[in-house]
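COMPLEX REQUEST
Ligand: adenosine-3'-5'-diphosphate
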Amino acid sequence: MALDRMEGLNLKQTVARGELREVEGIPFTEPMCKTWDQVKKFKARPDDLLIATYAKAGTTWTQEIVDMIQQNGDVEKCRRASTYRRHPFLEWFIQESPTDHYSGVELAEAMPSPRTMKTHLPVQLVPPSFWEQNCKVIYMARNAKDNLVSYYHFHRMAKACPEPGTWEEFIEKFMTGKVLWGSWYDHVKGWWKAKDKHRILYLFYEDMKENPKREIQKILKFLEKDMSQELLNKIVHSTSFEIMKENPMANYTTEFRGIMDHSVSPFMRKGAVGDWKNHFTVAQNEKFDEDYKKKMADTSLVFRMEL
Ligand code: A3P
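STATUS: Structure written out below.
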């Protein structure tokens, strides 16, 4: 990227944090709002695969697993480009440097089929063509507390997000849905409901952590693929947290030098279930649980907060 070559420029100062604006009731960044019409009109193709998640629920992990499956376990092929370029990030638009921008829609339109794309959109905002074309979707959900912790640290390191404020303030923003991509509660519930109407494989981060082989087999079945045990073991290994953390094509260190500061908090941070226990005070936890019960009273969806 051009930014990398500008000697003497303090990259940490090149991108200013912006505020959020709403599109159809969901907080988006300013550049996303401006380009929303293109996203809405996006033309999906029948063989498109969409990986959908609430931000920080394990998107990159799912992407790597899916790519490994599609490339028949060929690690080198999976290192052909960063996650960010391999799978267009549908609604994302960002001016990365004065001369460079990233548009998920443009990247997707230029990509030959079959395409795999990523989105954090709540289900009601997914471009209608995906449903018209009966596309498959893999949705990965993560328990609210770990998702919140991960999102907090991501806000600290990624300047594409607004200032998170203090931990206490961020909990409040998360609970009220006043964060980029909106309410976690509505997101997971909305997609849960949608799976009864569309071709959606609904997965959980905690299940994947507990038994990746079992969960990858679910993905294989969903994608109508067969694989030897040997290849399956290879995928489990290459997509483990430890390996992905060191993989420059999966750990977000090859892009966004002016946007993400891994010294504040690495993108591949902990990759664990239950890290929320190191963050919530007893009082914060009680308040969160009480509010959670109310917000999740109208769903059959159940999360595991620990393994
Ligand atoms: P933590 O911040 O809790 O470590 P996303 O890709 O949706 O942005 O999610 C990022 C979160 O998924 C981060 O969580 C990251 O560490 C975790 N993650 C990424 N790859 C993983 C893997 N292979 N195994 C477990 N967790 C992973």
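REMARKS: The chain has one domain: 36-295. The pocket of adenosine-3'-5'-diphosphate is lined by residues 53, 55-61, 146, 150, 153, 239-241, 244, 268-271, 275 (CB under 6 Å).
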